[in-house]
């Protein structure tokens, strides 16, 4: 009986110390970083840059896995239901985390309850652009034309709920105009049609619009965030032009399954922030990619998720936007 009690006490101590012991030796094997989009996209590029730096610092491979589908919900749900041991991470963006839950009646995960924020890595915005031969010469000109010809001005986006769509809906609401949204299956198709003059204007991601602006194929009249973009310093914000409160910015961030031990979250946060702030990463993601490096705390990222969920839910409801 004495030996049995001694064994039981030892077992209890081992069980109590198990998570701490595991966290203390973390990581011991490769980490996978899931991206819920196809390879080559903006989130994938960010993931691969950050994963490479984290692998070098942590001493284990950090392998990026692309799990696209259902507007990013397949990969996001995979991580939300993964074992919370720090070996399955999610490099996600605004769409699956704050737009989809505001747009669809149900999603297979709760972004606040099922995922643990690690760090917001970047923030990015959009440029309001028109084709080179467009008769539109300013934002005010665009608005005046929209008022004179309701529904005739068209703009494209990567799909229902995409950032460019949200920016167009917000502009229509703030100016009390009717603008016709043309959803595409991806940003590349929308960009091709704005370059070809098939669209009146569009809100394009700065990283894809900038080369065409520099070459004179597109003209940029405003950016969608609260501050000017370092990639387009001479282009004003819509708020500067008198459209007060206009803000459509989106994010990319790193998360883990809810229940991941706090000390593992702390370690991953330290490594992600260190990676994001390295000069070559800043050059790749910010100077060349049109992003702003944030590298914030888990608490700041959690607050952003809550506020953006509320913000986009209100916008989509007021604009009466529903999936097609």
Measure the end-to-end span: 69 Å
Order of helices and strands: HEHEHEHEEHEHEHEHEEHHEH
- Residue runs with pLDDT of under 50 for 5 or more positions: 1-22
Overall residue-averaged pLDDT value: 90
Helix content: 40-55%
Alpha carbon gyration radius: 22 Å
Structural class: alpha/beta
State the strand order across the main sheet.
Answer: 2-1-3-10-4-11
**Biggest sheet descriptor:** 6 strands, mixed
Strand content: 15-25%
General form: globular
Description of the molecule:
The protein is an alpha/beta fold. Helices cover 45% and strands 19% of the residues. The protein contains 11 helices and 11 strands. It has helices spanning 2-25, 42-58, 73-80, 94-103, 139-148, 163-175, 187-195, 206-214, 262-276, 279-287, 298-318; strands at residues 31-35, 62-66, 88-93, 115-124, 126-131, 154-157, 180-183, 201-205, 218-223, 250-257, 292-293. Strands 2-1-3-10-4-11 form a 6-stranded mixed sheet, sandwiched between helices. Helix 2 (42-58) links the parallel strand 1 and strand 2. Helix 2 (42-58) crosses helix 9 and helix 6 (163-175) packs across helix 11 (298-318). It starts with a helix and ends in a 6-residue tail after the last helix. The model is unreliable at 1-22 (pLDDT under 50).
């Amino acid at each position: 009986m004495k030996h049995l009690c001694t064994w039981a006490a030892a077992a209890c101590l081992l069980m109590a110390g198990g998570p701490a012991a595991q966290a203390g030796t973390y990581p011991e094997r490769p980490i996978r970083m899931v991206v819920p989009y196809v390879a080559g996209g903006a989130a994938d590029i960010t993931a691969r840059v950050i994963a490479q730096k984290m692998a070098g610092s942590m001493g284990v491979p950090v392998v990026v896995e692309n799990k696209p589908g259902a507007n990013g919900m397949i990969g996001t749900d995979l991580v939300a239901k993964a074992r919370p041991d720090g070996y399955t991470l999610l490099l996600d963006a605004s769409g699956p985390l704050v737009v989809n839950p505001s747009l669809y009646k149900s999603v297979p995960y709760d972004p606040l309850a099922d995922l643990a924020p690690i760090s917001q890595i970047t923030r990015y915005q959009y440029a309001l652009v028109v084709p080179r031969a467009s008769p539109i010469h300013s934002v005010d000109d665009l608005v005046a034309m929209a008022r004179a010809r309701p529904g005739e001005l068209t703009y494209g986006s990567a799909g229902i709920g995409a950032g460019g769509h949200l920016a167009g809906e917000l502009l229509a609401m703030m100016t009390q105009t009717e603008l016709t949204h043309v959803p595409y299956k991806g940003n590349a198709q929308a960009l091709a049609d704005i370059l070809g003059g098939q669209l009146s204007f569009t809100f394009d991601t700065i990283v894809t619009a900038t080369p065409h602006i520099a070459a004179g194929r597109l003209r940029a009249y405003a950016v969608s965030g609260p501050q000017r973009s370092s990639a387009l310093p001479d282009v004003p914000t819509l708020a500067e032009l008198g459209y007060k409160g206009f803000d459509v910015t989106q994010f990319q961030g790193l998360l883990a399954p809810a229940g991941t031990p706090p000390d593992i979250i702390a370690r991953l946060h330290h490594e992600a922030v260190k990676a994001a702030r390295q000069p070559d990463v800043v050059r790749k993601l910010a100077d060349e990619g049109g992003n702003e490096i944030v590298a914030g705390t888990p608490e700041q990222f959690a607050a952003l998720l809550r506020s953006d969920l509320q913000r986009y839910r209100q916008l989509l409801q007021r604009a009466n936007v529903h999936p097609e």
